[in-house]
Write a structure and sequence with these properties.
TIM Barrel, 8-stranded parallel beta barrel, globular, alpha/beta
Length: about 240
């Protein structure tokens, strides 16, 4: 199981004062020192946290894997294609301008696997399952978890790599990490929030320990080239 640390909210804190700290590049380096397998940033259309200059700086500085999440907007896609060095991963994420955070992926109705099939037909090598419904309901039951399991199983069976993320915390991450078909988790808000109390490196180390205790380590054979993936909502 790979853990990619999303550092968007390091930039959120910086943008609250429109200043130059905290620096996402330094945050990425700290996360890597603590054992993160990759760094994730989301370049949104409204640039509410990560900025174009951050992406360019991170493309040069990240030593593991840079996963660039991007809104499906022409000018952002152009920026991504011009990055040097090119990012190892690029994740297309549906956006709503008024949402506080990413509310979901592409609409996937309960039990409907057609969107996953379409992703396969488009030739993307991987999808990311949006775990928001699970994150909001895990204390009340396991229906959302089971839907994630079914979606992950189907995606793996048709040849897609499966990633997951959104709303995962130290309290709820392990059941998702235990789904054998999921090979990568993207987690940010919970890590950055607890970094206020523990420090960023310690916050990453604690999350690494939780996700490393479960799942199958497939990192070794996944580092060989750039991948583009499409985010799908696997729990609706």
């Amino acid at each position: 199981m790979r853990l990619y640390v999303n550092i968007d909210h390091v930039a959120t804190l910086r943008e609250a004062r429109k200043t130059d700290e905290p620096d996402p590049v330094q945050a990425a380096a700290a996360a890597e020192r603590a054992g993160a397998d990759g760094i994730t940033v989301h370049l949104r259309e409204d640039r509410r946290h990560i900025q174009d200059a951050d992406v360019a700086a991170l493309a040069r500085s990240v030593r593991t894997v840079l996963n660039l999440e991007l809104g499906a907007h022409a000018e952002i896609v152009r920026l991504a294609t011009r990055l040097k060095p090119t990012p190892f991963q690029a994740t297309l994420v549906p956006e709503k301008r008024r949402e506080i955070t990413t509310e979901g992926g592409l609409a996937l109705r309960k039990g409907d696997r057609r969107l996953i099939d379409v992703a396969r037909q488009l030739g993307v090598p991987a999808i990311e399952l949006h775990t928001g419904r699970y994150a909001h309901s895990w204390r009340r039951g396991d229906a959302a978890l089971k839907e994630l399991q079914r979606a992950a199983t189907h995606a793996k069976q048709i040849g897609l790599a499966v990633h997951a993320g959104h709303g995962l915390t130290y309290q709820n991450v392990q059941p998702v990490a235990a789904i054998p078909e999921i090979e990568e988790l993207n987690i940010g808000h919970s890590i950055v929030s607890n970094a206020v109390f523990w420090g960023l490196e310690e916050a990453v180390r604690r999350m690494v320990a939780l996700v490393s205790a479960l799942g199958v380590d497939v990192a070794a054979d996944r580092r060989g080239g750039r991948r583009v993936r499409e985010r799908a909502d696997g729990d609706q």
